[in-house]
Amino acid sequence: MLTTRISLALLGATLLSSAVTQLQADVFSDLPKDENGWSTTGWIGWVWDDTANDNWIYQDNLGWIYYQGDADGMWFWRPEYGWLWTESGAYPVIWSWNENDWVLHDTSGDFQKAWFWSYRQETWLQELTTLFRDAVQVSDLPDPVEVDSSTMGPQGGSLTIDTGELAGVTLDVPAGALPDERTITLGYIDADIRPNVGTASGRIISIDADGLTHFEEPLAVTIPFNAEQDIIAVPYYVDEGGLLQACQVVDVDEANGTLTYETFHASVFTDFLVSLYDLIFGQDYQPGVNGFQVVNTGSSYNPGGECFGMAAFAQWYYRHDHGDLYHSYMGTYSGDGNQSVRGQNIIATRAHTALTQKWSSYVPRVQQTAALSDQQLYATITNVIANTDAPTILYLARPGAAHAVLAYDFDADGKVYINDPNVPGAANFITYNDSTHVLTNYQSYTTTGHIGSGSFTYESFQNIYQDAEDNFSGSGLAQVAIINYTDGDTVTDRNITLTGNIQSGQALIEKLTVMLNGTVAYSTGVDQNGDFTVAVNLVEGLNELTFKTEAKDSNGNLLERPNTQIAPFELNLDTLESVILVTLTWTTDQTDVDLYVTDPTGDTSWYSDKTTADGGELDFDDTDGYGPEHWTLATTDTVRWGEPYNVRLHYYSAHDTGLSAPYRVTVNLYEGSDRVETYNYSGTLTVDSSSNDAPGSTGSDWVTIGSFTPVQATSPNAATSDATAPQSATAIAHPQFLEVVDPAAKARKDAWQSAE
């Protein structure tokens, strides 16, 4: 290691020699000496010159040091300190290359116990040997100072700062980035984030989105950048753990002096100014230890390959100190299609699928527009490796093909070392020529770009890691667990909410559908942690629940994926009988379909007036997808025997999605008795209207399900229904409507409309 560090130090002398105004060999030999051969410069103290070893001197409280310079100012090196620079007017204040800052030398001791005060770390040090540095870690940042804010909606907007700490900074929020109206606040943090390599710009930018942590479309941050002074500015996102994650640069406008990067995060950002000679190297990443062992062959989800996911996960795994990935998770599982796959294959599929939409559309678009020069690209790659102490992802392209690899180290010859998922365990490289400023291409690829993965949001790799540690439920298939009920429980409440968790297998499960007795579907989204809640309306007696799990393919389409459920999950309902039970569900998320039931008196249950005078009750108004909504007339309510109850649906809002709403309605008569009748209806609503919602309204945004006439048990006819299939519009005359509007409910509905 000492030999390695000496060679690095000698290289450092070569790189740094441009800062030395005059090089003289053995300049101390010309100074007057005492009888023991000691000389003094008058400012650096006593030195003893070894004439047999040019450029080596012995200083009374530093020991043997290798120097380049003259008696007025010099660079000097020692293994414990690395390269240092000082001059007669500055000493004992010394510039430390390893600290990337000034240090104060305590001249009161000798070289056996020399001390340096680090202004950066605010502590005394006896060693400054940090050529092999840890990642920059950010902690305890103060609260941001607000500079400007603006209320924006789905249409987007921008903020531009002309003066102060963020002068010249512009934040552009594109259309579609925000789901609803939010206050976007741009601020700065009065703190100091010191890089290992490069110069801190002094900008620490805070973006707050009123509780929103990520955006559907990337925000663009434009900062001032002087290309005449620096090769490139490298932007970083500060993640929740205080680690720096490189952001995606999309434009360098040297003529106007700006650089633009994008992010899907609301967080804290900073940037470092970089020149080529801000170099340190010597990372610990090894492809045969920290990379994947399985070859990138793709899967049924991603037949074109999973290189991006493999590169991104290996980077994350290394940064979070999980150790040897290469020899881990090599067990065999059946996989989604019953084909044999290894644990690493499951990880690769999960990771790549999480990033697929970025890989398929966003990354290629960015790489086409963010045309960094080879010099800027090389400076960016080396800066990110040095400041994160981790690999960074490169985008490679040629006509008809694209690929992702990890750049994990670089050396004095300009080599950038590559971990390629197509060649596990091998160390490949590309080379930067400092004379021609050309970075060679890798293999047959004609384009090389840097991927700022810190700009992205996707499934937490911690979830994938935890599933891998849990052995992928032993099968590689999704595993559904209900945590608030036990299989076989008896319940007394018809309307229940199931709470549970899904451990995903080869793909992240994003939607769960609970099928009740094989006929009624209740759907819900599943968050990245696998958690879900879903409302279910049980029927009297035995209820058999089966689970349908869905994940997205490489095109973002939901596909059903198998899970480990073998037998139905059973719940028994023991409650009062109902005369009429109507259940509405629909299959499109972020849409609002409403259930209306009008009793024989003309009194209507709807979202604004849920309960009729007779006791018929609408339980819930679901405004953003799936349902269910239920209307119940119990045997204890006032029942208008022999008179019709009319059931209708209204498509209130698609929330600007333009989506249709396929629906299903189930009507149960005499539930809990021995004469149960069930009627199922389905169809699709395609036109929405939030203003045509009063009971009795008509139009293409309405559909009539039917009229249902309950008959007492003494009658020879159990029940009748004058509608056996959905109609396109109502044709039922209502003698009276009680349009008593609940102002709070109406305001909530109207809030959706105003947001649109």
Summarize the structure.
The chain is mostly beta strands.
Describe the structure.
- By secondary structure, this protein is mainly β.
- The chain is built from seven helices and 48 strands.
- The chain is elongated.
- Mean pLDDT is 83; it is low at 1-25, 715-746 and 752-756.
CATH architecture descriptor name of the largest domain? Sandwich
Oligomeric status of the shown chains?
single chain
The average pLDDT is 83
Helix count from the secondary structure assignment: 7
Please estimate the helix content: 10-25%
Shape category: elongated
Biggest sheet: strands side by side, in what order?
Answer: 1-2-3-4-5-6-7-8-9-10
- Please tell me the total number of domains: 5
What proportion of the residues form beta strands (DSSP E)? 35-45%
What class, by secondary structure content?
A: mainly beta
What is the terminal-to-terminal distance? 64 Å
Largest sheet: 10 strands, antiparallel
Rg (C-alpha, Å):
34 Å
Write the SSE topology.
Layout: H1 2-16, E1 38-40, E2 46-49, E3 56-59, E4 63-69, E5 73-78, E6 82-87, E7 93-96, E8 101-106, E9 115-118, E10 123-125, E11 145-152, E12 157-160, E13 170-173, E14 182-188, E15 199-208, E16 214-224, E17 232-238, E18 244-246, E19 248-253, E20 258-265, E21 268-274, H2 287-290, H3 307-319, E22 332-333, E23 341-342, H4 343-369, H5 374-388, E24 392-398, E25 401-410, E26 415-419, E27 428-433, E28 438-439, E29 447-451, H6 461-469, E30 479-482, E31 489-491, E32 495-503, E33 509-516, E34 520-525, E35 531-537, E36 541-552, E37 558-561, E38 569-573, E39 578-586, E40 592-598, E41 604-605, E42 617-618, E43 629-634, E44 645-653, E45 661-671, E46 677-685, E47 702-710, E48 719-721, H7 743-755
Parallel strand pairs: 31-38
Antiparallel strand pairs: 1-2, 2-3, 3-4, 4-5, 5-6, 6-7, 7-8, 8-9, 9-10, 11-14, 12-13, 13-16, 14-15, 15-21, 16-20, 17-18, 17-21, 19-20, 22-23, 24-25, 24-29, 25-26, 26-27, 27-28, 30-32, 32-35, 33-34, 33-36, 36-37, 36-38, 39-43, 39-45, 40-41, 40-44, 42-43, 44-47, 45-46, 47-48
Helix pairs in contact: 3-4, 4-6
